[in-house]
Design brief:
By secondary structure, the chain is mostly helical. It contains 2 helices and no strands. It has one domain. Helix 1 packs antiparallel against helix 2.
Length: 95
């Protein structure tokens, strides 16, 4: 349910788990429990770096097993429901 269905299964489940964990840390009710944005950036850069290094070490092989991951810029399903809904939330304010 957390993954955009437009990805059609083309994602690394381990990276997804790390990203979800990070997002949960960022939504703590007490601002003092949330990571600093510089820490968030380092973690996200680390996730991206892992993917790139893994792909290079496999010689550009498919990272996600036998899944076919080709995405078209042609969005023919214009009337399809969006895969996520963004709701307005109240932010805690500046730190």
């Amino acid at each position: 349910m957390l993954v955009d269905r437009d990805l059609r299964g083309c994602f690394d489940p381990v990276e997804l788990e790390k990203a979800v964990d990070l997002s949960l840390q960022c939504t703590q009710s007490l601002p003092t429990l949330r990571p600093k944005m510089s820490e968030v950036l380092k973690i996200l850069e680390g996730l991206v770096g892992q993917s790139v290094r893994a792909e290079e070490s496999q010689g550009g092989a498919d990272l996600y097993g036998e899944r076919t991951c080709s995405f078209s810029q042609n969005y023919s399903d214009v009337h399809e429901e969006p895969s996520f809904i963004i709701e307005a939330i109240e932010l805690s304010g500046p730190r």
